[in-house]
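writing this on my phone so excuse typos. first protein, seq and then structure
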Amino acid sequence: MTQTSSLGTLASEGDSGTQGFHTRLNWLRAAVLGANDGIVSIAGLVVGVAAATTSSHALLVAGVAGVIAGALSMAAGEYVSVSTQRDGERSLVDRKRSELQADPDGQLERLAALYRAKGLDAHLAEQVAEQLTSRNALAAHAEADLGVDPEELTNPWHAAWASMLSFTLGALLPLAAVLLTPVSWKIPVTVLAVTVALAITGASSAKLGEAPAVPATLRNVLGGATAMAVTYGVGLLFGTLGG
C-alpha cells in the first residue's frame, strides 16, 4: 500500500510538475518573443523616420506612438488568444466533469489505461487510478487525459500584461538609441544596438526551444535587418519627395 501511495503521489506530482514547467517555459519564451517584436517593430519605425527627417521631435512622437500602439496591440492580441484557449480548456474540463458523472466506472478504466500506457502494470495502474480518483477525480482525469489542471487554467490578463511589458522593454532599446545619439550617428548606432539585441533574443529563444543557436540567431538578425533596410528605403523615398 505504501508503494502504491508513493507511486500515486509521484504520478500526480509528476504530471502537474511537468505541466507547471512547460507553462513557465512558455511564458518565458513568450516574453523573449514579445521583446523581440518590440525591438524589430520600433527599430523599423524609427530608422524609417530618421531616414526621412532629422527632427528629434518627429522621432520622439513617432517612436512613443509606435511603442504605445504596439504594446496595446500585443496586449489585446494576447488577451484574445489566451481567452480563446482558456474557453477551450474550460469546455474540456466541463465535458470531463460530465463524463465522470455519467460514467464513473468507464472513466476510471480510461485513467487506468492511461497509466498502463505510461508503463505501469495493469494491477498497479488500477490502484493508482483508484487512489487519484478518490482524492480528486476531476483533477486526476483532466491532467492525465487532457493535460489541463482545472485549478490553474491560463489567465488572459497575465498574458496580456506580460506581452505588453516585454514588447515595451524591447521597444525602448531602438527608441533610446535613435534619440540619444547625434544626428550623424543615429542610424548606425541604432542598427548596431538592434543587431546585438536581436542576436541575444534569437539565441535565447533557440536555447529555450532546445534548438541550434546559430541558425535561429542568424534568422532573427536577418529578419530585423531586412525590416530596417526596407523602412530606411521608404523613409529616404518620402524624405526626398517631401524635400
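second protein below, same order as before
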Amino acid sequence: MKKLLITLLMAAGLSANAAEQFVKGADVGWLPQMEATGYKFYNKHGKEQDALQILKDYGINTIRLRTWVNPSDDRASGHNSKDETVAMALRAQKMGMRIMLNFHYSDSWADPQQQRKPAAWVGHDFTQLKQDVYDYTHDVMSAMKKAGVTPEWVQVGNETRTGMLYPEGHTDNWPQLAQLINQGYDAVKAVSPSSKVVLHLDRGQDKQWFRTWFDNAQANGARYDVIGLSYYPYWLDGRPDYTQSIDALAANMNDLAARYGKEVMVVEVGGEDTQPQNTYDMLMAVQRKVREVPHGKGQGVIYWEPLGARSWSHYELSAWGADGRPTRAMDAFLDSL
C-alpha cells in the first residue's frame, strides 16, 4: 500500500512528504461551549470519546480556532476568548494537531455581513485603531507562545471580502485596509516568525472577485503568505449541487497560485448534514482539486464546523448526526490520499 501511495504521488508530481503535510482540518470553535453545556460526543461505534480524538481517528491533523476580543457568554455567538482559545490550542497541539488561529477582530462573528469593531475600540481614531490591531494580535500570539503553542497559520481577519473593522477598514478605502492588515501581519511575525499569515475571502469559486481583491492587496502593499478560501455550495444562489461550482473553485485556486505566487488553502468548507453522501463526495472532490494545484501550492482543506451538531447549534452544515456520532461525510478525510 505504501509503495502504491508513493507511486500515485510521484505521478501527481508530489512527494510522500507532501502527502503527509496535506492539511485535513476541522474548525472547532464551538467545542468548548458544547462541552460546557454537557454535549457528549460518540465515535462511529457509539462509544463516548473525546471529540478531538474522534477527529484525529478520521485523519484530521489540523485544528482551526477563532479568537474574539471581548466575547459574551452566549452559547452560540460567544466564548472564544483569548484564554479559552489558548487552552484549546494547547489541548489540540498535545494530541499532535497543527494549529490555525483565526483573528476576527470583533467581539463576535466577523464575515461579509458583519465586520463590527470590538466595543472597546469604538471611537478610536485610525492611528489608535492600527495600534489596537497590533497590540491585540501581539497579546494573543504572546499568550500562545507562553503556553508553548506555535500556530502554523494565523488568519488576519475572517472572510474579509469587503474588508474588516468598518468603516475604516472597508475595501472602499484600500490604503487603510492594507495598513490594518499589515499591523496584524507585523504583530504575528514579531512573536512567531515561522507562522504563515493567511488572508481569507468567502465564495471561493468567484475568480474575478478574488482577482480584484488580491490585485488591490498587492497594489497597496498588504503583506501575507497564504490565500484562504471558503467554499459552501449550499449557500450559493439556489443551493446548487457542488458539481456546478467545483471546477470554478479549482480554476480560481490555480489562478491565485500562479498570479500571486502564494500557497492556497480551503480554510472553510461544509455540506448539508442531512445529505452526508453528497457532502462526502464534495469533500473528496475539494481535496482532489486542492492537491492538483500546480507546484504543490495547494495546502489543504478545513471543515467548518464538523462537530457542531444541528441538535446543539441549529447549524445545517455540520458533519455530526442527531445521535452524537460523525456522519458518513467524515470518511472523506480517511479515504482521500
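Confidence is low (pLDDT under 50) at residues 1-18. thats all i got for now
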